[in-house]
Design a protein that fits this description.
Strands 3, 4, 5, 6, 9, 10 and 11 form a seven-stranded mixed beta sheet that branches. Strands 1-2 form a two-stranded antiparallel ribbon. The relative contact order is 0.15. It is built from nine helices and eleven strands. The protein has helices spanning 4-16, 19-26, 30-44, 60-88, 106-117, 130-138, 213-220, 234-242, 286-300; strands at 49-51, 56-58, 92-98, 121-127, 144-148, 160-175, 201-204, 227-230, 248-251, 262-265, 273-281. The protein is α/β, with parallel strands linked by helices. The chain has three domains: 4-88, Orthogonal Bundle (Arc Repressor Mutant, subunit A), CATH 1.10.10.10; 92-166 and 275-300, Periplasmic binding protein-like II (D-Maltodextrin-Binding Protein, domain 2); 167-274, 3-Layer(aba) Sandwich (D-Maltodextrin-Binding Protein, domain 2), CATH 3.40.190.10. Helix 5 links the parallel strand 3 and strand 4. Residues 2-59 form the HTH lysR-type domain. Keywords: DNA-binding, Transcription, Transcription regulation. Belongs to the LysR transcriptional regulatory family. This is HTH lysR-type domain-containing protein.
Length: 301
């Protein structure tokens, strides 16, 4: 195998036509160039240069090896440029994880701003529950993630840097004709006392175990949910609410995705809340840091 220093020396001699000129270009002595070219020729199995009265000239074998050397050296130069771009934050690929409702508006808005500023960075979005995203980050599969402490909190991990992004209120989605809907769409209006919903059927995602945020909120209000329907996807939840089959909690981040047939209301104080955070590996890419700053700006808006 030919080492890259030997290939660079071969290229310099071929370009200058002289051991002496190549030595000056690479800051070698002329004798060092002669020894290294002799060693390269031994490895190549024969002469690479014809020694002339004035200078040297590539042999056919030298021309063949020089062609391949140029290909290798050019690829290495491009690799160096690409790595410099990755570490500088403006090239490469950024793998971005987020839980479902963060992908409604928060993450897409930040990714759009990031793509405008860093068009040479390829973005690879990944959606999943927060616990799974943190596991994938620990395993080196994600460069940055948006996670929440719902429903069971976020575990401490010395290899993951968590930074609080926003404390998010959970709203209640009601069908437009509901007695507490107030006759207007969208979020706003007077807050609803959670105890006024004690007789409602609640729609929430299946829970693999532990207490849900709905159960916690209802417990603080002094009652347990009367009945629940287990629907995993948000489109399904919204459809059930629109049909008058129940009500559901909706994170504020998901409010832009709520269809016109539903009404969002605050639950007053103490409203159920969850904390949304960004997660970075121990040694993050500069591009990941840049995206975190844009996520913070988007959350502030």
């Amino acid at each position: 195998m030919f080492d890259t220093d030997a290939l660079r020396l071969l290229d310099a001699v071929a370009a200058t036509g002289s051991f002496t000129a190549a030595a000056a270009r690479l800051n070698y002595t002329q004798s060092a160039v002669s020894r290294r070219i002799a060693a390269l020729e031994a490895r190549a199995g024969g002469p690479l240069f014809d020694r002339l009265a004035r200078g040297v000239r590539l042999t056919p074998a030298g021309q063949a090896l020089h062609h391949h050397a140029r290909v290798v050296l050019n690829r290495l130069a491009r690799a160096e440029e690409e790595l410099a771009g990755i570490h500088g934050g403006h090239r490469g690929t950024l793998r971005v994880g987020a839980f479902a409702t963060a992908n409604v508006a928060l993450v897409p808005g930040a990714l759009r701003a990031f793509a405008d500023r860093f068009p040479d960075v390829a973005l690879t979005p990944v959606e999943g529950p927060s616990g799974g995203l943190l596991r994938r980050m620990r395993e080196g599969e994600l460069d940055v993630a948006v996670v929440s402490d719902y429903p069971a909190g976020l575990p401490y991990d010395e290899d993951v840097e968590l930074t609080e992004l926003v404390e998010e209120e959970l709203l209640v989605a009601l069908p437009r004709g509901h007695r507490l809907a107030g006759g207007a769409g969208g979020a706003g209006g007077e807050a609803v006392d959670l105890r006024e919903l004690r007789e409602e059927t609640w729609i929430e995602a299946p829970s693999p175990g532990g207490t849900t945020m709905l159960a916690q909120a209802c417990a603080r209000a002094g009652f347990a949910p009367r009945a629940t329907l287990r629907i995993a996807e948000w489109t399904g939840k919204f459809g059930y609410v629109a049909a008058g089959l129940g009500v559901t909690l909706v994170p504020a981040l998901a409010a832009p995705a709520v269809p016109a047939g539903l009404v969002l209301r605050s639950l007053g104080e103490p409203a159920p809340r969850r904390t949304v955070s960004t997660a970075l590996p121990r040694t993050p890419l500069p591009a990941a840091r840049a995206l975190v700053r844009l996520l913070a700006e988007a959350a502030g808006q």
